[in-house]
Amino acid sequence: MDRLTELLLKMEHYALENKIPIIQREAGTILTKIVKEQAPHSILEIGTAIGYSTLLMAANLPSDGQIITIELDHERAATASRFLSESSFTHNVQVLAGNAGSLINDLPGPFDFVFLDAAKGQYPDYLEKVTAKLSDGAWIVADNVLFRGLVLQSANTPRRFRTIVKRLQNYLYTVTQDSRFDTTLYRIGDGLAVTQFHKEK
Ligand code: SAM
Predict the structure, then answer these.
(1) What is d(CA 68, CA 97) in angstroms, rounded to the nearest whole number?
(2) Residue of 9, 72, 106, 113 best suited for mutating to test ligand 1, as the one with most atoms within 8 Å of CB
(3) Which residue, among 84, 92, 89, has the nearest Cα to 64 in the 3D structure?
(4) pTM of the model
């Protein structure tokens, strides 16, 4: 087994033991496929957790590619930095601890690729804030956009999930109806939206 596979397995065990959500296998395969094919030079990830998806992307980046990844929970951000320091991609990744909703504003961009995997109810806000920082032809991958299937069939949504479901519906409406975005929705796991952005269309 190579070093990367060993580290990814170690992280999977850690996530399972500590009940930390990380990207599911099918979504991870699509994520890495797009990164490999599009070879982005600058990635913004929102929602690092322990750096599992960060490592998947880093391993498929061009050698001068850079990832900025943001995690709200300081302990998780520190764990992510520790795991990533065991890889050979330390120089490609910067882990920022804090609230993405405000930290995004301080990042100059441009970003060729954005992976959204944090607070689902904040996706429309993240989208609005990153759109101004996207390069032409940039990709946005958003995980868990179907939220337990409730986003496409919301009639019986429990009250406590109504805001999240409504905001995810708004997110999907924008990326499918705004002519600057082309989106494919994958009904795998909890739903993965893959979007390409064009400045002028
Ligand atoms: N992308 C990770 C992976 O696949 O390995 C999993 C991320 S996990 C599903 C979501 C993470 O987003 C959690 O660790 C959570 O603490 C973080 N998060 C939630 N709200 C956030 C915010 N406002 N800013 C930054 N991170 C946030």
Answers:
(1) 11
(2) 72
(3) 92
(4) 0.96
For 104-148, where are the E strands, in sequence order?
111-116, 134-143
Tokens of 147: 């939220």
Is 141's pLDDT higher than 80?
A: yes
Find the 47 Cα to ligand 1 centroid distance in Å: 3
Q: Please name the residues in contact with 135: beta carbons below 8 A apart, sequence gap of 6 or more.
A: 42, 109, 110, 111, 112
- Can you say whether the dihedral through the CA atoms of 81, 83, 84, 87 is positive or negative? positive
Name the nearest CA neighbour of 64 among 93, 38, 44, 85.
93
Reduced 3-state DSSP string for the chain? CCHHHHHHHHHHHHHHHCCCCCCCHHHHHHHHHHHHHHCCCEEEEECCCCCHHHHHHHCCCCCCCEEEEEECCHHHHHHHHHHHHCCCCHHHEEEEECCHHHHHHHCCCCEEEEEECCCHHHHHHHHHHHHCCEEEEEEEEEECCCCCCCCCCCCCCCHHHHHHHHHHHHHHHHHHHCCCEEEEEECCCCCEEEEEECCCC
User: What are the φ and ψ backbone dihedral angles of 69, each rounded to 5 degrees?
Assistant: -125, 135
pLDDT digits (tens, 9 = 90+) for 30-66: 999 999 999 999 999 999 999 999 999 999 999 999 9
Residue nearest to atom 13 of ligand 1 (CA): 49
